[in-house]
Amino acid sequence: MAKVFTLAEVSEHNTNKDCWLVIGGKVYDVTKFLEDHPGGDEVLVSSTGKDATDDFEDVGHSASATAMMEEFYIGDINTSTIPTHNKYTPPNQPKYDQDKTSEFIIKLLQFLVPLIILGVAVGIRFYTKSST
């Protein structure tokens, strides 16, 4: 009979000197394998404290790598202690309505921008005419 661990118990083993992973509902003590892992030890240590099944499957491990896992098997995980995956839903944001842009500001800018350009042009003309 395999020992059953909770996620809290497995999460305590999260260093490169003591590293346990949860993959496929099973708990593995991969501490001895950290130095030999082709992806480096930090990849394994970063997968501690959670269900690392997706991380393991996304990489596409070979059949020999999957078979090698059996020597590190130490027990099963109590699946009720693993939080369920919640699908990300973005927060509701008000839609941007271009018609709500203040018409007053647009009309004011349409009037002021040409007026400022004209003022700058007259100022430059006046300054250059008086200095000669």
TrEMBL record:
It is found in: Endoplasmic reticulum membrane; Microsome membrane. GO terms for molecular function: heme binding; metal ion binding. Keywords: Electron transport, Endoplasmic reticulum, Heme, Iron, Membrane, Metal-binding, Microsome, Transmembrane, Transmembrane helix, Transport. The keyword Nucleotide-binding does not apply. Residues 2-78 form the Cytochrome b5 heme-binding domain. Its main location: endoplasmic reticulum. The keyword Heme applies. Gene3D superfamilies: Cytochrome b5-like heme/steroid binding domain (3.10.120.10). It is a single-pass membrane protein. SUPFAM superfamilies: Cytochrome b5-like heme/steroid binding domain. The chain crosses the membrane at residues 104-127. GO terms for cellular component: endoplasmic reticulum membrane. Belongs to the cytochrome b5 family. This is Cytochrome. The lineage of its organism: Eukaryota, Viridiplantae, Streptophyta, Embryophyta, Tracheophyta.
